[in-house]
Design brief:
282 residues, Pantoate--beta-alanine Ligase, Chain: A,domain 2, six-stranded parallel β-sheet, three-stranded antiparallel β-sheet, 19% strand
Length: 282
C-alpha cells in the first residue's frame, strides 16, 4: 500500500484532472524520475502554492539517456518516493510503464534549437534534451495540467522546457523554483548518493567557487580573467571540469561582460564517478 492515488495510464490521469477542472480546481504537475529528495518535495510545495491539486510524475525516461549512460542503474525507489509524497500532501502519482509512454510504432521527437543548442549540456549529451523535451511535451499534454514546476538546478533544462512550452502553445505555465541546497551549499540531487565520503566533503567547493566568481563579476572584475581563475580553482581541487561559463540568463548565449545582460554562471563537473551540476545568478 502506497497511501496515494496512482495513475498508471494516461486515461486515468486525464479523467481525474477533468473532474478537478470541472470543480474549478487548478492542477500542478511536478515531473520527476523518482529517487526523490527534499528538493523534489519543495517542488510539490511550490505546486501547492499555485494549484489545488498536485500530480508528481515518476518515470525514468529512456529517451534522455545516451548509449553510454546506464539507464538500468538509475535509482528506483518507488515505495519510499510515495511515502515522501504522502507526507508532502501530493494528490497523485503518474507512474506509467515505458509501453504507455512509448507504444509500439512511436516515431516522433521534438526538434530543438535556441537554449538547447548553446554548447553546454548539449555538447556533452547531444541527444539528452531531445529526450527531455519529448517526454515533457507528452506529460504536459497528457496531464492537461495548468502549471508545471521545475527546479533551477538543471538550468539549461528549465530554459529548454520553458521555450518549448511557449513555442508549441502547450497551454501550461512553467514555474521555476530556486535550487534547494544542503546546509553546506551543495545543490540537492539524486546523484549525490553516489558520492564517497571524501568526495561529498569536497563537493560544496563548487558552489563556493561560483559564489566567489559572482562576487568578482559584480565588482566589475574582468570577466574572462575571473572565469578562468575560477575554472582553474575547480580543476586544482581535483574535479574534472566539463564547463564553468558565464551565460545570458535567458538565452544562454555567451557573454563578454556584465553589459551583455543578466548573467547566469553554469557549471558541470565530475568528482570520482559522479557528475554534478550547479548554477547561480550574478
Amino acid at each position: 500500500m502506497t497511501g496515494i492515488t496512482i495513475f498508471e495510464t494516461v486515461a486515468a490521469m486525464r479523467e481525474a484532472v477533468a473532474g478537478w477542472h470541472a470543480a474549478g480546481e487548478k492542477v500542478a504537475l511536478v515531473p520527476t524520475m523518482g529517487a526523490l529528495h527534499e528538493g523534489h518535495i519543495a517542488l510539490v510545495t511550490e505546486g501547492q502554492r499555485h494549484a489545488k491539486r498536485v500530480i508528481v510524475t515518476i518515470f525514468v525516461n529512456p529517451t534522455q539517456f545516451a548509449p553510454h549512460e546506464d539507464f538500468k542503474k538509475y535509482p528506483r525507489t518507488f515505495d519510499d518516493d510515495c511515502a515522501k509524497l504522502v507526507a508532502a500532501g501530493a494528490d497523485a502519482v503518474f507512474f506509467p510503464a515505458v509501453e504507455e509512454m512509448y507504444p509500439a510504432g512511436f516515431a516522433t521527437r521534438v526538434l530543438l534549437l535556441g537554449p538547447a543548442a548553446v554548447g553546454l549540456e548539449d555538447r556533452f549529451r547531444p541527444t539528452h534534451f531531445e529526450g527531455v523535451a519529448t517526454i515533457c511535451c507528452k506529460l504536459f499534454t497528457q496531464s492537461r495540467a495548468d502549471h508545471a514546476i521545475f527546479g533551477e538546478k538543471d538550468y539549461q533544462q528549465l530554459k529548454v522546457v520553458t521555450r518549448m512550452a511557449a513555442d508549441l502553445d502547450l497551454g501550461i505555465d512553467v514555474i521555476p523554483l530556486p535550487t534547494i541546497r544542503e546546509a553546506d551549499g551543495l545543490a540537492m540531487s539524486s546523484r549525490n548518493r553516489y558520492l564517497s565520503e571524501e568526495h561529498r566533503a569536497l563537493a560544496p567547493l563548487l558552489h563556493q567557487v561560483m559564489q566567489d566568481l559572482a562576487a568578482r563579476l559584480r565588482n566589475r572584475d574582468d570577466l574572462l580573467k575571473a572565469v578562468t581563475e575560477a575554472q582553474n580553482a575547480i580543476i586544482t581541487a581535483g574535479f574534472e571540469l566539463d564547463y564553468l561559463e558565464a551565460r545570458h540568463a535567458e538565452t544562454l548565449a555567451p557573454v563578454a561582460s556584465l553589459a551583455d545582460g543578466p548573467i547566469r554562471l553554469i557549471l558541470a563537473a565530475r568528482i570520482g564517478s559522479t557528475r554534478l551540476l550547479d548554477n547561480i545568478p550574478v
